[in-house]
Amino acid sequence: MELFLQTLLDGVLIGGTLVVIAAGFSLCFGVMDVIDFAVGEWVMLGAYTAFWFQEFTGADPLAALPLFFALFFAGGYLLQPLIQRVTAGKRPHPVLMGLLFTFGLATVAKGSALYFWGFNFRSIRTWLSGTNIQIGVTVPSLRFAGFLFGVLTTLAFLAFLYRTKTGRAIRATAQDRVTASLLGVDVRRISALVYGVYAGLTGMAGVLIGALFSIHAGMGFRYTTLAFFVVVLAGMGFVPGVVPAALFMGLLQSLTAVYLGGRYVALVLFGVFYLTLVVAPKGLFGRGS
Predict the structure, then answer these.
(1) Are 244 and 12 in contact (CB under 8 A)?
(2) In whole angstroms, what is the distance from residue 196 CA to residue 190 CA?
(3) In 3-state terms, the chain is what percent helix, strand and coil (to 5)?
(4) What is d(CA 241, CA 218) in angstroms, rounded to the nearest whole number?
(5) For residues 184 and 69, is the Cβ–Cβ distance under 8 A?
């Protein structure tokens, strides 16, 4: 029984870390109609940025999360017009064009990381590393912090979307770009803002993931795959569904690894992904695109 409870807890904590990555990914698709294949590379760059920040300053990267958000927000905001240029206009299959372009970005980012930092694995130490909370089961402090960060950040993000004027403009753009622009919404600015927020959140998530796991140039593909799976389960573009979908994905990973073996995790995830596309192509909640 203790092993089962520990497995459930680990799954929930893993899912909480995935929430923030998948939320930005989902909104990016909803507003820009772009399936960003570079989401994992944003995570990788966030982890490396935190590592080198710690190397040069000696400071705890967790204390500088707002700084990392601002840095990656600026990068995403400046990059978005280039993505928009590739997908806008009369080009055929804009979603496919966006997918191909971001795949190219991911390839360049991974190749650059390999060139500059090599194949070596690195890690980040924080003041929470190696500490646990005992409540009958063992709760790693850093994973719990990642869970809280993911869930609270996503809930704050949802409150921003549904409670502010800018949030309403973002949702209007996600529903119909043409109608939103006719109603006075600056669609280009909103798209750049969304991609900037998405890059900022994902970069911050990379800091936490870098503290939890090893950092290496090839780590991005795993998180791209997981984010895509979570978003498909939630429904493409349906941001509120991301929280339960991410927690479900974390539980599925944890239970499969413990009771079937780690080599079956990818098989089970792909199986659930395939069944979702066949049975519920709009996601488990029926609200996706």
Answers:
(1) no
(2) 10
(3) 75, 5, 20
(4) 28
(5) no
Strand partners, 122: 215
Mean pLDDT by 10 residues, the chain (289 residues): 78 83 81 83 94 92 92 93 77 72 90 90 85 77 84 84 86 81 84 90 91 90 89 82 87 88 87 87 73
Which tokens sit at 174?
């996600």
φ, ψ of residue 258 in degrees (nearest 5): -80, -45
The two structure tokens encoding residue 252: 């599925």
**Within a 10 A sphere around the Cβ of 148, how many other Cβ atoms?**
12
DSSP H or E segment with residue 256:
helix 242-259
User: Closest Cα to residue 243, out of 21, 69, 10?
Assistant: 21
Helical H segments across 139-241, by residue range: 141-163, 165-175, 177-182, 187-212, 220-234
Rounded Cα–Cα distance for residues 139 and 198 (Å): 29
How far is the C-alpha of 132 from the C-alpha of 140, rounded, in Å? Answer: 4
Two tokens, residue 214? 């090893």
Domains in the chain, start-ordered, CATH in brackets? 2-279 (1.10.3470)
Q: What span, in angstroms and rounded, lies between the C-alpha atoms of 119 and 115?
A: 9
- Dist CA 79 CA 116 (whole Å): 21
Report residue 38 as tokens. Answer: 């570079």
Report CA 106 to chain centroid distance, whole Å: 14
Residue in this structure with the two tokens 């780590």, named with its chain if needed: 219
SS (H, E, C) 63-101: HHHHHHHHHHHHHHHHHHHHHHHHHCCCCCCHHHHHHHH
At 26, which amino acid appears? S
| Tokens, residue 213 | 């796991």
Helix (H, G, I), strand (E, B) or coil at 138: strand
